Amino acid sequence: MKLFKKKSFWFVLYGICITTIFLYVLFPAETVRSKLESSVNSSDFIFRSSSLRVSFPFGLKFKNVTLRSPSFGQNPVFHGESLDIQYSLLNLIRKRLILGLSGQAYGGSFNGSSAVLSWKKIFPPAEAKLYFKNIDLQKFGLLKNKVGGEISGKAHGFLNYETDDAGGVTEGALQVFISNGAYPLAEPFLGINKIDFTTAHIEAVFQSEGIGLKLLELSGERINCSLAGDIIPDADLAESRLDLKGTIEIIGKDRTKVQVAIGGTLANPVFKYI
User: Fold this and answer.
1) Is residue 59 part of a domain?
2) Distance CA 178, CA 204 (A)
3) Tens of pLDDT along 34-72?
4) Is 169 in the same domain as 238?
C-alpha cells in the first residue's frame, strides 16, 4: 500500500509510540492518585489506595482500594484488592462521563460501568451497571452491619440503577445467585435458628417508592422457601420494612409446608402464618 511507503506515516506512528511509552514511564502516579482521592473525599466519603499505575488503553489501576463513610460505621463501604477505571473516547460526545470498571474484591471479581457528572465528583455514581462473581459474602463486612446478620455464601449476579438530580434511585434491578450459604434468624421459626441453603436466587427492581422483591427462592437440605413482595428502604438498611408473602417448606420426618407473611425489618423479620 502507498500509505506504508510514505515517510510521514512512519514519523507519525513513531511519534505516537514514543508519546505512549513516555506517558506510561513518566506518568505522575502519586500526583494523580492524590487528586483523584481528593475529588472523591468529602464529609460523607473517604477514598484511599496504596498505589496507582496507568492501565491499557486509557485507564488507571488502583491497588488496595478502600472507600469509607462515617454513616456506614467501622466497616468500609468497599474494599478491593484492585480497581481498574477505563476512560472511553465516546465521553467526548456524551453529557455524562462514563467510566469502565473492573477489579478484584472479597475473593471474587467484578466489571461494569458507572456514569458520573464530572471528574470533580465521581462518587456516588449517577448510574451504574455491575456484574460480579465468586463474591464471598462473609468477607463483605458492610453487609453484616447493614442487614443485621452474618450472611455467608458465594454470590454472582448483576446490579444496575439510575438516580435523579437529588441522588435518589429512580429505577434499577438486581439479580443474585448464592451458593452454599447461611443466614441466622433473630427469632426461631418452626424450630429453625439459622437458614442453611444450597442455592438462593434473588430478583428485585428498584423504584422511587421502594424495592420490589420479584423473587426470593431458597433451597436446602432442611428448608425450601419462595417469597415475593416489597421492601420499604430506611436510611439504616437494617431497619428497612418488609412486606413479603410466600411459602416455606420444612423438610424432615414430616414435611411441613406453610403459607407465611413476613413483616418487621431486615434485621428482625417477623413471621406470621396465613
Assistant:
1) yes
2) 14
3) 666 666 655 577 888 888 887 877 778 889 999 887 777
4) yes
